[in-house]
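User: Sequence in, structure out. Go.
Assistant: Echoing your sequence, followed by the structure tokens.
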Amino acid sequence: METPLCERCTADLRPVALMAGNALYVEAAGAYDGRLREAVLALKRGERAYLDPLARLVAARLPGAVELVPAVTTRRRANGRGFDQARELAERAARITGASVADVLVKHGGPQRGGGRADRLAARGRFALRADAMLPGEAILIDDVMTTGATLRDAAATLALAGVVVAGAVVVAHAPRETSAAGRESHEA
């Protein structure tokens, strides 16, 4: 099955370096629009064909063999989709780069869909550590889309409280503030 993310289609993506609350350095493979947006939305609908092309975009932003921590979605959302997109992206990017995955986070609570910017930024405590977690000393967070940075910030805070140094995050796409409310609502984990 061909996806709209062939190498030629992604050649014009412009990677973006961003900051998410508390000076968390984030790299995005591109803006959340066009074919990249279509691919992320398809992924969120459970279309696995987009995992490898998107993982290649994530892998290209990684500094090498590092510990990757997926900013997982809730179990309910992952079960409905058939997989957790952040976990799958992290595992596939790790295979490409030689990195390893520390699947140590659990997310609880409802989706951010429909919440305004202020509500998203105010959200705290949505992540916990897995009971059997083997924590890395240093890690990079992996997620599909960054809108406000609240999810990444919350995941990073959970890891930091446990003593993990969060060196940054890599996401497939960044949704700029100009994105319409309808566009933001459709891509939250």
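User: And one key feature?
Assistant: The domain at 13-185 is CATH 3.40.50 (Rossmann fold).
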